Amino acid sequence: MIIHFIHYPVSAKRFVEPLVSALNNAGFETELWLENRTQLADFISAINCPKQFAKFDVSLNPFAVIKNIFSLTRRLKAVKPAAIHAHQSRASFIPLLSGRLAKVPIRIYHNHGTPYLGHKGIKKWGLWLLEFINCFLATHILTVAPTIRDKMVEDKIVSDKKVLCLGCGSVCGIDLDEFKIENFSDGARNKARQKLGIPENAFAVLYVGRPFVRKGFNTLLKAWDIFCKKQSDAAKILLTAGCDLSDIINTQNPCPETIIPLGYVTDIHQYYAACNIVTLPSWHEGMPYSLLEAAAAKRVIAASDIPGIDSLVKHNETGLLARPKSVEEFVKIIDLLFTQPQLQAELAENARRNIEKYFDRKICEKLLIDYYYDIGIEPEK
Predict the structure, then answer these.
(1) How far apart are CA 308 and CA 326, in angstroms?
(2) Calpha distance 201→237 (Å, rounded)
(3) Structural contact between residues 331 and 227, judged by C-beta atoms closer than 8 angstroms
């Protein structure tokens, strides 16, 4: 038995269920353990792989943490899994510690990013320490991007010999059946724009993320304001998925007519189809799924030059990169893509090819299965 741990149901559905299903299909008896968050019942009910509920998210309440450690340790002693595979920084500490207390022989920590890079002071060092402890408790460590692996070694979180990135990175890659290229053609773009009320000739930029400073949200709004003034006569739209009207107003009041806040989006595909570029000015990331999806949808990427993103986006090859927090550089790359549609097309084409070559879900699933064999995990079926 192998148990994959991830606390958040949305992440469980998007990132880990495909791995659990692939492992079961390959003969490895595998379950997904997650937290039962009732407000996300729709995502939980959509998870079709074998699953169980447990409490293992890190809390500021030390008594809750201790209680969850002992509870999970008892369950692991009863199940006696051959391996546990814990995902994400915050959700891995309790499973890894419980796994060690329960004497689970193989404990994999799957790092999805380096959040300490997006903070300062005590919080930064607290997050750094959490990464260090997770790596200490694990017998094996994976991360989602080659440059994040290198950063973890550089920042003395883990030794060079203990951490590995499979292939070119990502957790589970992209399902190219879900991102058929014909669904993102010029014709598909026009249909999506008609449906969404976006002018056919507009230059449309899509941001997918929460309205946090460390996600570059404030940087983006400032850069967009400058860009709009510079290209005052052009039709242009900024779509913000994951941010609603109040989020815009809190940062830039009133909300400009050139910004359409979308709030939480259930079907992001139509917005990929409708836009010209996808942007993410974040201060820290793993291997951002929004950018993987953007590349699969053959959309050009304008993002921060940071570990993780720079493993997916090569500047002037598969997208354009700017220094995080630099409003001026983001204005420059957005304006460059606006004024050079041929460059847009070339970068988007290269981005799609890069996904097909390195990030196809079938490739990522095979890499994980081969890795399990390499570290001594055998199929049970």
Answers:
(1) 18
(2) 10
(3) yes
Nearest-angstrom CA–CA distance, 30 and 51: 9
pTM summary value: 0.93
The angle, 0 to 180 degrees and rounded to 10, between the axes of the packed helices 289-296 and 341-354 is 110
* Domains located in the chain, CATH noted: 2-173+361-374 (3.40.50.2000), 181-359 (3.40.50.2000)
* Of 312, 63, 275, 48, the residue nearest 167 (C-alpha): 312
Q: Which single residue is written with the structure tokens 């340790």?
A: 73
**Structure confidence by residue, pLDDT tens digits, 74-104:** 999 999 999 999 999 999 999 999 999 999 9
Residue 68 to residue 64: CA distance in whole angstroms: 6
Q: Is 254 exposed, middle or buried (0-12, 13-18, 19+ CB in 10 A)?
A: exposed
60 vs 57, 63, 90, 94, 342, CA distance in Å?
A: 10, 9, 11, 13, 51
C-alpha to C-alpha distances, 164 to 31, 169, 306, 349, nearest whole angstrom: 23, 10, 19, 29
Per residue in 13-62, pLDDT (tens digit) is 999 999 999 999 999 999 999 999 988 888 899 999 999 999 999 888 89
pLDDT the model gives residue 38: 86
Residue 248 has pLDDT above 80, yes or no: yes
